[in-house]
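Q: What changes when pyridoxal-5'-phosphate is included in the input?
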Amino acid sequence: MTDSSEIAERLARVRAAVATAAREANRDPAEITLIGVSKRKPLAAIEAAFAAGLRDIGENHADELLEKAAAFAPDGLRYHFIGRLASRRARKVARQAMLIHTLDSLRLARKLSLIAQEEGREVRALVQVNQGGEATKGGVAPDATAALARAAAALSGLRVVGLMSIPPFDDRPRDWFRQLRQLRDVVAAETGIALPELSMGMSHDFAEAIAEGATLVRVGTAIFGARD
Ligand SMILES: *Cc1c(COP(=O)(O)O)cnc(C)c1O
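A: The predicted holo structure follows.
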């Protein structure tokens, strides 16, 4: 579905739902960044969403992110990287993405730190947590999160600003989101690192994520339509 009026309508509905969820949680909607996940959608879909006011785009494959960012990068558009990051793609992705949501090893942290130093700028990242211990998903175990956050934050040029998760898909998303927020609170207290960002919630559960403190929601289908 790349019809631009359809994308604009879907986007308006999702934004309204984000604002409603924020108000219901006594939160300022401005605290929440809506990221449109455009993976496997053509560039025209991103252009349509940008024209309708969306400013944050998420991609989960490095090559796809790089291709799209090379073709469409108007002022104000921010790309986020939300997939597994291979070392050999790290430099280019770090150049294009304003935030890497998927830091999940000390090896990758060291690589990003080196890149940041070589390129003379800061690289921002979230530690990805694998809450359900699922083999198909990236991320560190909850009880390994503090150690990675502490070690990564100590590297120069790399800034760890929060946590990200794709919890198991079940009927209690809110419990998973609450656990991630509580983990963030514990890790921040333990390490002394400010971790203001929580990247959690997708098309089917972003309202629950906002209720539990999400600051970044990653919404694909609800904005861009089903993927083939
Ligand atoms: C695809 C994807 C999303 C968006 O999923 P929808 O269910 O289409 O909203 C969010 N986060 C990550 C990491 C993804 O890969």
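Observations recorded in class: The chain has a mean pLDDT of 97.
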